What we know:
The first copy, chain A, is α+β, with helices and mostly antiparallel strands and about 350 residues long. Chain A folds into 2 domains: about 1-145, CATH 3.30.1330.10; about 165-340, Phosphoribosyl-aminoimidazole Synthetase, Chain A, domain 2 (Alpha-Beta Complex). In chain A, about 35% of the residues lie in helices and about 25% in strands. Chain A has helices spanning about 10-20, 70-85, 105-120, 175-185, 185-190, 195-210, 215-225, 235-240, 265-275, 280-285, 300-310; strands spanning about 1-5, 30-35, 40-55, 90-100, 125-135, 140-145, 165-170, 230, 255-260, 295, 315-325, 330-335, 335-340. In chain A, the strands form 2 sheets. In chain A, strands 8-10-7-11-9-12-13 form a 7-stranded mixed sheet. The first copy, chain A, has a 6-stranded mixed sheet with strand order 1-5-4-6-3-2, sandwiched between helices. The longest helix of chain A is centred in the first third of the chain and has 17 residues, at about 70-85. The interface between A and B is large, with 67 and 67 residues.
Amino acid sequence: MKKTTGLNELNLISEIKKIASATQDFNKTLLIKSIGDDAAVFKDKNSILVSSDSITENVHFKLKYYSFHDIGAKSILVNLSDIAAMGGVPRFFILSLFIPSYITKENIKETINGIIGVAKAYKIALIGGNVSKASEFSICIAIIGDQQTKKSKVIPRYSAKPGDLIFLSGEIGNSWLVHHLLENKELIEKFLEEKPEKRLIESFIKNFILPVPRVKLGMELARLKLADSLTDVSDGIYKDIPNLLNQAAGQTSGANIFIEELPLNHNLKKITGILKIKDYLSNAISFGEDYELLWTSGVENEDKIFKLSKRLKIKINKIGTVIDNSNEVCFFEGKKRFIPDNKTYRHF
Amino acid sequence: MKKTTGLNELNLISEIKKIASATQDFNKTLLIKSIGDDAAVFKDKNSILVSSDSITENVHFKLKYYSFHDIGAKSILVNLSDIAAMGGVPRFFILSLFIPSYITKENIKETINGIIGVAKAYKIALIGGNVSKASEFSICIAIIGDQQTKKSKVIPRYSAKPGDLIFLSGEIGNSWLVHHLLENKELIEKFLEEKPEKRLIESFIKNFILPVPRVKLGMELARLKLADSLTDVSDGIYKDIPNLLNQAAGQTSGANIFIEELPLNHNLKKITGILKIKDYLSNAISFGEDYELLWTSGVENEDKIFKLSKRLKIKINKIGTVIDNSNEVCFFEGKKRFIPDNKTYRHF
Lengths: 348, 348
């Protein structure tokens, strides 16, 4: 953990180290050197996964809607999802903080508590990082994971076979609705006045403000070889499904998706009904940030996948099929073609 | 390489991939999956090093003084220095870009060219990353390296033994002077008018605007076991020397540093003379960002170290000794104690 500049860094870094000490026993057999040197050192006989993701104020969150605890938690949750999307085991992470002058020491502590709370839940260790002054608040995390055993493969994108079924965990659209509700908070409150629906909305926001990375599910899909191609829903299934499809020369596959099979939360339907939001389906398809797993698997695995769903208590839906030589993702509502508004959401 | 939000990301990422393709052959035997999936995948039998460093506009650079090419180059050079400071071999890196609206596509291309130019020189591959909108320009890099061979150890900090000599590569203070010259550019130009010294200053800035990470030297120190404790000069030797000293309970060591042995560039002396800057020595000691290697080694290794210096054509100076039970870094000018101004530079 190095300081880069500004701030009362030494205090800040010792504060981070103190809070992070709770994670230093995780994956200890792999770790040779953690926070405190020019680099962290580890050893791993299995294949190593590495990815990074950043969240930035006013792009991914607004300080008036998110607590610092939630911002911290979200920054690491989205990274965990990348390891889940390879069927890997998360192990370590490196934290880079960009801290503007209006962020207090207390704010930073809350953020770190949010990050470390998640790290503890997923048993990953903070092994290094840096802090820098900045004019807005950003968190950049690099996450390191590995393949579970030498025998379990990591699961790539772009490997779906024609005839494969397409599966999706959990629900989509909840992140979009939370975003919409927060962005229009005052308007909605005015509209609802003191109606009991207000409480429904509040509890929906509370339930879905943070994504749940499907780490355990990803690991089981890899271990049981139940996915040909795997990714997470970060940009909306409209954009994420093509990432599953084989794009090798002459092998362009496509997909048919059945709208009725898309898993929407019943409270999402209720709330969009109350607020008269008609295009909720397009939004659920195009907004993203759901961080559910999206994968393809041979028909012969269908039963095993639904058994896994029961065992892990994670909802899994079969939402479509991979088709040959089409190079197109088609949505169907019954037999009718459904064309989602491809709103390229830019998250503010 | 994932997009996080905003921008015309797809174009931007394909642009980055295109420029980065020149690096995809480096360390290919270790790499299983590079840019383009949810995470990169590699395999490594040796110990793995990982570190991150960020540079931010107005904190680490101002756009009016630095070209985008230099900003890109610097962002990866400072990370390479962290691997050098462990005696490791740099292998891969992950790039996170924070891009404000006033940065053009051309600016980004230049930045990436700066980064990839360095990556090619040091034979490291870009294996992933993300881009995000932001209100100021930042680059966050996570770098991955490894121990050269199973036999060569990585060299930590905090392992100096009393009696050890303290060595420093290259020169210190050049980064401080470049910073000072850029920050006071107009004033200095006015003062010098058209004097020939102007050219001296221009060439000094050109020579020292980018640090040179001592990767080869670090690797040789590890291979030949010529360092007990090793770090790089990022915060100035005043703060970096304590990082070499053993802080284990009851073993607090100290250091004596001899000012005459501190390697200052002759043009630094000339320019500070012309500009009548008296406190150049304190600045050279306290400013940092020199990214030279600083290490300790037993007296018996002195000859070997100077032979290495000759072979690598890198200046190495013996600047002091580690002493027992002192817990203090003392600077001496002859027999007189020298107290450097501990300017805690905040780089703007």
